[in-house]
Amino acid sequence: MILIDPPAWPAWNRVWSHLVSDESYEELHAFAKTAGIPSRGFDRDHYDVPSDRYDDLIAAGAVPVSSRELVRRITAAGLRHRKRPPTE
């Protein structure tokens, strides 16, 4: 299933959502391609999408969930990739 959290992440004078799959990266990449999301928006385990795309992505089939639920679902699916801490 494709999931999207509410736009809540400010960066570059915009507010962003995260788009993920709780099934596979293949499902996520296929949805993103169909929705016209550029591949440069992919970051480890999600696509960053601007708030002006939120409603369109839900209309295309993404399921809105809280940020907490989104992380819970991709972690349970084994698809969560956290940033590595800096090495000294």
UniProtKB/TrEMBL annotation:
Cite the Pfam families for this sequence: DUF4031
Domain DUF4031, which positions?
Answer: 2-76
**What name has this protein been given in UniProt?**
Uncharacterized protein DUF4031
Task: Give the source species.
Answer: Kribbella rubisoli
